[in-house]
Amino acid sequence: MRFASHRDIARALERAIRRAGIPVAFSAGYTPHPKISYAGAAPTGVASLAEYFECTLAESQDPGLVRARLDDAMPDGIDIVDVVAAGAGGLADRLEASEWQVEMPGVAPDGARTAAAAFLAAESVEVERLTKKGRRRFDTRGAVLRMEVEGHATTGQHETCAILRMVVRHTTPAVRPDDVVTGLRQVADLAPPSSTLMTRLAQGPLDEASGAIADPFAVNDGTTQNGEPERAAPKDGSAQADPAGRAEEKPRSSSPARDSEHA
Fold first, then answer.
1. By residue range, what is the domain housing residue 33?
2. What φ, ψ does residue 22 adopt, rounded to 5°?
3. Angstrom distance (rounded) from CA 36 to CA 157
4. C-beta of residue 100 within 8 angstroms of C-beta of residue 201
5. In this structure, how many other beta carbons lie within 10 angstroms of the beta carbon of residue 167?
6. 24-63 tens-digit pLDDT
7. Which CATH number fits the domain that encloses residue 172?
8. Hey, how many other C-beta atoms are within 10 angstroms of the C-beta on 72?
9. Please, what's the largest Cα pairwise distance for the chain?
10. In this structure, is residue 108 part of a structural domain?
11. SS3 for 25?
12. What is the dihedral of CA 89, 80, 200, 256, to 10 degrees?
């Protein structure tokens, strides 16, 4: 599913909500829309294990049942992982950073470590990207809190494949993993001979000291009318309403994504 656009995932989720019979709330006016919002959606072309959404329901529902029904209704490749009741504040405010894994076929781990060290040692690494408003130049170094080469894997076409993991703070403009790969090329001439496979492993609250990312649901204080926490999980990019939900979106290769919603 990594080549599916955000709009494709959103449509799949709305269809799944209808099929599952989830009583989603709608906006008022001449053209009512389901009250679903997405936080920190991954760019097209990357896999994700951590996509989140929020959804407002017209009536109270058990998060576990919402998760199960949505998971069954979602297309293959998208798993509803968790659903919880919404707490105070917006879910987007908790998504402060993402952890990314980048597989670089044909790149030796030692070469990747050298490039990572050069990137981290630089005060700034500016890259250029084409946006809707034209070409934009911005710094990537300031957003990267941690970067390391964890190991390597052998692929069918290449004898070696360096695996880079990094924690990137959510900024404006957003620094994407491909921007960081472009930065590595600039500072260390690191150019993978084949396309890289990028996967978001997590996103959530950031510990500035350690660079670790916490589960955004762990700080959720929402409860049901009975005083018990609502919790459920979607399959492949689904979302819930006033509870918060997490979903995994499985790419055609092997990467999933996580989504949260409120019910």
1. 6-93+221-249
2. -75, 125
3. 42
4. yes
5. 23
6. 999 998 999 999 998 888 888 899 999 999 999 999 999 9
7. 3.30.70
8. 12
9. 60
10. yes
11. coil
12. -170
Residue type, 201: L
Domain annotation covers residue 263: no
Domain count, the chain: 2
Separation between Cα atoms, residue 235 and residue 77, nearest integer Å: 8
Same domain, 54 and 114: no
Nearest CA to 144 out of 164, 126, 170, 110 is that of 170
CB 75 within 8 A of CB 137: no
User: Do 194 and 106 share a structural domain?
Assistant: yes
Q: DSSP E strands: which ranges in the chain?
A: 36-39, 47-55, 78-85, 97-105, 126-131, 134-139, 144-152, 161-169, 197-204, 206-207, 212-213, 235, 243-249
Q: Could you read off the pLDDT of 221-234 as tens digits, one per residue?
A: 443 333 333 333 33
Domain boundary among 204, 230, 258: 204
Q: Is residue 123, in this structure, part of any structural domain at all?
A: yes
